[in-house]
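Anyone able to model this chain together with ribulose-5-phosphate?
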Amino acid sequence: MSLEMAKKIAAYKAVDDHITDNLVVGIGSGSTIVYGVQRLAERVISENLNLICIPTSFQAKQLILDNGLILGELDRNPTIDVAIDGADECDVELNCIKGGGGCLLQEKIVASCAKTLIIVADHTKNSEYLTEKYKKIPIEVTPIAYIPIKNRIESLFGGDLKLRMGGSAKAGPIVTDNGNFILDWFFDGSPTTDFDGINREIMMIPGVVDTGLFIGMAKKAYFGMPDGSVIEK
Ligand code: 5RP
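re: yes, here you go
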């Protein structure tokens, strides 16, 4: 089974297990959530469900609109029943690295407003500990502060921070939906690394907007497997 199919079966199962009528649903960002929204749209039509969808990015907003779902906003719907989102890595305790697509800030805000955060992913994202497989932790920063933040994190914890650049040689830095830059922190943790403590310290550095470390936020994860099964953890 292809990775795309693995994403699809995970997202479909998560939507089928957690979505019922009259919910406010957080819609994550990335390639896996595309299948989740597809499934939501199918079920809204076939079961006449009443769902309000809160986006985590410009991409998510477009997905909601393109699939004919009802677009909500945190101003009106500050409490989200279930948020469904992808991840770049998810460890045994459901701690995640997110932000590979640069949407970590709004993803974390939506996740923090959700009673339940569900992760959907293919099997390559399932790991024992953070940075076991995915070697970079995205950090969203205020543009003027990216060099001091890079220097501070490297001197505190080691590793190497690189400013995320656009696709072509001529392109400048990637700018997030919130007008910020992303620093990718290339860092090799271990099973005993205290990512919770590290996250708290990084969040104290002026100019850091948020990190892609989602510690203790997810309640459940679904991973699509090569054999067509879905593992839940
Ligand atoms: C975007 C994210 C995505 O959820 C994460 O990168 C996973 O994406 P995909 O579903 O394409 O593997 O955090 O900022």
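DSSP finds six helices and 14 strands in the chain.
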